[in-house]
Specification:
mainly alpha, two-stranded antiparallel sheet, 2 helices, about 60% helix, single chain, about 70 residues
């Protein structure tokens, strides 16, 4: 049987971009909005950690799954 392989490079790249953007504007907003931004940043970090845990280590083209078809 052939193995199915795909990458999550675009997803992990977008997560990192969103973290940078939120981190950049965090200091420019009021205290209440900073709490919301912190929650969003925490969620992004958790999602990135989940992807990193379930995927193989990052390779040249991004993180990838290798799945056996049923």
């Amino acid at each position: 049987m052939a193995r199915i392989r795909f990458t999550l490079k675009n997803i992990t790249r977008e997560i990192r971009k969103a973290e940078k953007k939120l981190g950049a504007i965090r200091g420019k907003v009021v205290k209440a909005d900073q709490k919301k931004i912190d929650l969003h940043l925490r969620g992004l970090k958790k999602s990135y950690a989940t992807i990193a845990r379930h995927c193989r280590p990052e390779v040249r083209f991004g993180q990838s799954f290798t799945v056996k078809p049923k």
